[in-house]
Structure formats: C-alpha cells, structure tokens
Design goal:
By secondary structure, this protein is an alpha+beta fold. It contains twelve helices and 16 strands. The strands form five sheets. It has an eight-stranded antiparallel β-sheet with strand order 3-2-1-16-15-14-13-12, with helices on both faces. The chain has a two-stranded antiparallel ribbon with strand order 4-9. Strands 5-6 form a two-stranded antiparallel sheet. Helix 1 runs antiparallel to helix 12 and helix 2 runs parallel beside helix 6. The longest helix has 16 residues.
C-alpha cells in the first residue's frame, strides 16, 4: 500500500510552502466552527506529493482524529472508476461507444420518454433512438435520480424506492430492470441530467465481462494499481469515518445513511458505492494523469484517457447550457462533460484559477478530486459531510492550491 506523505520539497515542484499552509488554516477553521467533522487534502505535481494536510476528527463522538489511513465513503467519486472499467472493455473490442445498451441489457430495448402529465399520471412516447453506451458515460441517456426533486420522473423514481439508495433485496440486475420500466426525462442524447446512468454502466460491465462488479474492480483495477483499501466494504471498519449532516447544532451524525460501506450491499452501485482511502484514490488519479498507467501497470491507452477528458456535449457547449441544474450552489459555467468527468473549458467563464483541460468530479459527502494535465497536477479532498452543496469547499480548495503554485 502506498504511504501518503510529502516526498518532494514543494519549491522543487513549483509551490510556495508557506502558501500551501493556507489550505490547512482554512479548513481547520471549518472544524473549529463546527462546520466540518474533519478533513484531509492531498496535492501532488509531476507525480510527487507536495502537501498532505488534515484536521479534525473522523469520528467526532469518539474523538478519533483524521489520519492518512482514514477510510471515506467516496459516493460519486465511484463514477470515474466505473467509467474506466467500461473504457477498458471498449479497448478490448467488447464494447463500442455507439452500441445500444439493449444488446446486453434487453430490458432497455423499448424505453419511453415522459412528455407531460404528473408522477401519478405520466404521458409518454417511445424513444426515437436507443440509449447507447456513450449516453451512459455522459449522463445524456434521459435517466435521473430520485433525490433531484425537480421533475415528475424524479418523483416516479422516489415512489419506486429510488432516492438516496435502492430498495432492500434488489441486486444491480433487478434495479436495472426496474429503472428500464420507468420513463426517461428526455430523448436520449438531447440533454444532460445527472443520474443513475453510471449504475446502469456498472451493470453493463458485469454482463460484458462476465464478472460481478466488485470482482471486476478488484481483479482489473484495484489489485493492479495497489489500491487495497478500496471496495464496496470497508477494508477496516474501525478506520471508516462517521458520516454527518449539517444541523442547527452544527453537525448531526447520520449512522443510518452511514451504514454504507460496513457490509456488502445488495446493489453494487457503480455510481456511488465505494469506500476508499486518500492514498488509494491518489493512485487512481495518478494513473489518469499519466495517461492510463502507473508504475508497471497500464489500464488504458493515453488516447483513451484523452478522449475521456474531452467535452462530449454537442457543439462543445457548457453544462450550464445543455444540462439540467445539478445544484444551484454548484454552477458549471465554463465546464463541459466527458466520459465520466466534468471538463473545464474556460477558466475565465468558470471564474477559477485552474487550467483549461482540467477534469474532475466529487462525491455526495463533500469529497472531490481533480486532475490538471496542463500543470501536471492532481488534488484530492476528503471529508464526510452530506450534502456536497452545503459549502463551496471545492472552489475554495482550488483557490488555495493555485495561489500556492508560483512557478
């Protein structure tokens, strides 16, 4: 297992060490104010770790401090891993991006699209084109999440038991069968909507590879990359951070939702089910930064990673123009979307110090990562606060990282 520690003088990597310390001071204030339980940040450049900062507690009630081997529920940071798995199958010739997913998932052979009406009485029409692999990777399939609360189809998902999870007893295959019976929000390929598309993609990986998703992840990604702390079940339950939500009192522990990661789930969620450590996920992002390989292991070709990190929205439009709003607190001006990641197109429009070409995503419990190929930089941030829109942690972290980059 990789040890998470600074292994280069920050000045050698173009950073001002005193300015890097602003990261720690900033997020420690969140802990002192009772807004975050604890946090951990990792900054690396040219493959060398220049800063590891942490503070607060992984378990506030037990006064367990955050450490470099704390385990975190990464929720939607699972999605890039599932996307990599799918692209590995594309590289093997087992999938094509334009393939209709009904070739392997026949339940999606005749999707219907919501036209008007209500959740109780929807009017639908047949989809004019099939859902394709590319649609799942780009969230343009017309699928949704029940927790959006923005459309009658979201309410239909909730009524079927799909909001912040899946109904007990349903495995991934059974969930896909249910999702396929629900109407789409829009015709495939015509809009962007954050959704269970990556969960369906995970099922596609299972059927095409002939392996359960957890076995594929372990044998094809986690073991080759030396990521022993990543899986659907915490490798060491004692190291798993507690989960919190904001409240009038500051923070409230949410053990009901925090059960995620303590036992093998009925549904292996390729969209949000993994637990990982900062060290493990750093190795995953380093693989991406290096064009698909790490140490002596190659998962993808550089051209495939480049394709994944390109904006695939029609006409190179912004998510703000093509997509349905994700959260009002999380605008995506200047960003497109690739095959599993957001992609920064215009730093000025996005009002960020980051670089065009940056690709990134985050998780529901306020975790986040990004890879900046232009600056040869990877950054990861870990905490356990639901929802991720509570504070603007990600944009603040970007400011703090780039103001310390002085070469």
């Amino acid at each position: 297992m990789a040890e998470l520690k600074v292994d280069v003088d920050p000045a050698e990597a173009g950073f001002d060490e005193d300015r890097l310390s602003r990261i720690d001071a900033h997020f420690d204030r969140y802990v002192e104010d009772g807004r975050l339980p604890g946090w951990l940040a990792v900054v690396s450049r040219h493959g060398r770790i220049v800063h590891v900062g942490s503070g607060g507690y992984s378990d506030v009630e037990a006064a367990t401090p955050v450490s470099t081997d704390t385990l975190w529920r990464i929720f939607s940071m699972t999605k890039p891993i599932t996307s990599v798995a799918a692209m590995m199958l594309v590289e093997e010739g087992l999938l094509e991006l334009d393939d209709p997913i009904s070739r392997w998932l026949p339940e999606f052979a005749s999707p219907r699209v919501f036209v008007k009406g209500s959740a109780l009485k929807p009017y639908t029409e047949p989809a004019v084109s099939p859902i394709r692999v590319w649609h799942l990777l780009t969230h343009t399939a017309g699928l949704t999440y029940g927790f959006h609360h923005g459309h009658p189809v979201d309410a239909i998902y909730r009524a079927a038991g799909f909001e912040w999870g899946t109904p007990p007893g349903l495995d991934l295959a059974a969930c896909c069968a249910q999702w396929a019976s629900l109407p789409l929000l829009f015709q495939p390929g015509t809009e962007w909507n954050y959704s269970i598309a990556t969960d369906v993609l995970g099922r596609l990986v299972e059927v095409v590879s002939g392996q359960p998703l957890d076995e594929f992840f372990t044998s094809r990604i986690f073991t080759p990359l030396d990521m022993p702390d990543t899986g659907f079940v915490a490798a060491s339950p004692a190291r798993l951070a507690a989960l919190y939500v904001p409240s009038a009192a500051g923070l409230t522990r949410n053990d009901a939702f925090g059960r995620l990661g303590t036992s093998r789930p009925d549904c292996l969620s390729g969209g949000g089910g993994l637990v990982s450590s900062a060290a493990d996920y750093w190795r995953f992002t380093e693989m991406l930064r290096r064009g698909g390989s790490l140490d002596d292991t190659r998962l993808l070709s550089p051209r495939t990673v480049s394709l994944m990190a390109s904006n695939h929205l029609p006409g190179q439009v912004d998510l703000e123009e093509f997509g349905r709003p994700l959260f009002a607190e999380m605008p995506f001006d200047g960003h497109g979307f690739g095959l599993g990641f957001s992609v920064l197109q215009d730093p000025v429009k996005a009002r960020t110090l980051s670089s065009a070409g940056e690709f990134a995503w985050g998780g529901a419990a306020s975790t986040a990562f990004w890879v900046d190929p232009g600056e040869d930089l990877t950054v990861g941030f870990y905490t356990q606060l639901l929802p991720s829109s509570t504070y603007r942690l990600r944009s603040q972290l970007r400011q703090l990282v780039y103001q310390a980059l002085v070469d």
